[in-house]
Amino acid sequence: MAINDDQVNVAQEMKRGAIASIPMIIGGIPFGILFGSLASSYDLSPWFAVAMSMFVFAGSAQFVAIGLISIDAPLWVIVSTTFIVNLRHLLYAADLVKYVKHLPITTRFVMGFGLTDETYAAVQPLYGTGTINKESGHYAYLGSFLSFYIMWNITTVLGVLFGELVPGMSDWGLEFAMVATFISIITPYLKSYPFWLSMVSAGVASIVLFDLPNNLGLLISAIVGVGIGYFADLRYSPINEHQERAQ
């Protein structure tokens, strides 16, 4: 029997999603502060960073975009690079659609805006283990999304304020938080050859192509990683399916 909204403890479900997100929220705090501080170091308006966090809310893509904007990169480079960097969200959405396709389009639109690496990493396992279901899981998703959104915007403002008051804050090495957060997100998925090949190929390409202008090395490396991962998955999936049937 389907569960309607009156039978769902909305607050409890949202709390569940927020609690599952706490470890990555903590890891993202210095990440958000660093982004806010970059506005002053790049001689951009503080309101520019605040507006990006409010209306774009795209984490790594914001770092890429603000870096390209600061060096007056061509518009097509900014758009194409951020598009490729965010292309992984299409895969996240494809994985989650089976749980949310019955929801109203307005609800799915809000969920799409809030789809980040961290929310996906926090909520997808809850669906996978049956902790939440498709009838009420979107409330846990919204709880995760809102907790990240509030944290990201508060830390962006803090970064803007600290960046104005403490010159050189962007040189403190806080960007390591971004690296650590992404490592924690991808590590659980490194269980098969396609994932490993995708990670290694993208990493090697980013090192080899580091000196390309306008950060084009990042764009090409992302394409290399996605391409190799895709074709490796086509190559190894039949083998894995055969082994599972044999067992």
Q: How would you describe what is shown here?
A:
There is one protein chain. The chain is an all-alpha fold. It has helices at 10-41, 46-55, 60-70, 75-85, 88-100, 105-113, 117-128, 137-165, 176-186, 193-208, 216-246. The longest helix is centred in the N-terminal third of the chain and has 32 residues, at 10-41. Mean pLDDT is 81; it is low at 241-246.
Give the topology:
Blueprint: H1 10-41, H2 46-55, H3 60-70, H4 75-85, H5 88-100, H6 105-113, H7 117-128, H8 137-165, H9 176-186, H10 193-208, H11 216-246
Task: Output the keywords.
11 helices, disordered C terminus, 247 residues, 75% helix, globular, mainly alpha
Concise structural overview:
By secondary structure, the chain is mainly alpha-helical. It has eleven helices and no strands. The protein has two domains: 178 residues, no CATH class; 58 residues, no CATH class.
